[in-house]
Amino acid sequence: MHLVSSTKSLLQKLRDEGWNDLIVKVRSFCDSINISIPDLNARYVARKGRARHQQDDITLEHHYKIDIFNTVIDTQLQELNDKFTDHTIELLTLSSALDPKKMHASFRIDDICQLIQKFYPSDFAEHEMMQLRMQFEHFDHVRQLPEFKSLETISDLCQWLVKTRKFEIYPLVYRVVTLILTLSVSTATTERSFSAMNIIKNKLRNKIEDEFLSNCLLLYIEKEIAETFDVDSIINDFCDMKERRVLFC
Length: 249
Description:
By secondary structure, the chain is mostly helical. It contains 12 helices and no strands.
């Protein structure tokens, strides 16, 4: 996440300050292999001859800098901002406090508490919020155990808590770990939902109701699970929903 943030900053700096350095490098390259360099102060013509709706004050430098250089960087920045918003970066950065490899060096209890208060307040009652810090302070001694040092991922930590039955001693710690593990699944499901929306709700189904659309999307997104369902079991469940006049064969 720090790498993503620094990439954004460097791209923005390149956009604001990198044009002149780029021109110097281009001129040096062209001079070294005898390529003629056009006059950047000359008027830019979009095509051969004079464009009907083109402004006369647009120069070649304006075209290359604004229409190409800045536009390409803006596209890259927009892509990064869409994928990694400040909200997402903060969430993933705070979640890394539960990484066992990070715990070996330092145990960031404040970051974990901030993570819960900001992103998962509805999953914990008020009294559990107060108990959360105390449980993690006790858990700080558990991470000194030899078997804990062999854990490498948050998934390993979750399995270790179940295997050693320590999830019964630290239920709030276990709940936080499971919430973090579902983060990637939730994000992937959301992205798949938007992709499926364009397929399910097409021009022929533009008046589909929300409930029916939700059911269709669920079947399409989780089609691997839906394919395991037996047709007879679906018919039986449908029959058991209420009494019907006609019996299904």
